[in-house]
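Hey, resending since the last one bounced:
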Amino acid sequence: MSDHDPHPAGPSRPDPADTSRPADAALNNGRRETPLERADRNFTELLQELRVTQTGVQILFAFLLTLAFTPRFPSLDTVQRATYVTTLLLAVLAAALFTAPAAVHRGLFQRGAKPLIVRVSSRLAGAGLSVLVLALTGSVLLVVDVAATRTGAVFAAAGTLVACGGLWWLLPRAVARAGERAGEVRPADDGDADNDGDGGRDRAPGSGGRSDGLT
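The structure tokens again:
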């Protein structure tokens, strides 16, 4: 071989875009992070979302608790009392669902289960949002029923349900579909919530969806 060979012999450097290599496959997700690092990031982002929703639930729960001690509460009829009790229990259930991810994380702490924690916590957060919608609807139904008329309360509650459902479920799905058509959003993979929409394509071979790191 000539001394002036511009391509001397030696080990070739790996191509960062080559996902056929196990080391590259774990890092080629556009963020240069491993599956465990991605799970950590997703869990942190989920906790930020839960802080927002928990604040709303706490305010609603405090409002409902104070209603029982107001002078007008004894004058509520049977329907209004039933609405109050149902709404109060829904608020409690929503608070329990939003705080459950912390308990799940504590129960699986340092057991290498962060991706599983992210998947379970994501489902708990979704269930909490569903219950919170019902609690908000019940609150509007009760307040408008007491302050105005029962017919107006039904319409106001229906409007609350439609508004929350549209903003919390329909709007994100519409944005996701528009983003997919524009190539700005990856197709969702419900079976791999910890993968942030990557569909498992950048998981290291042989990992089987598990992470051996500490949570």
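The first helix runs from residue 22 to 25.

Sorry for the duplicate.
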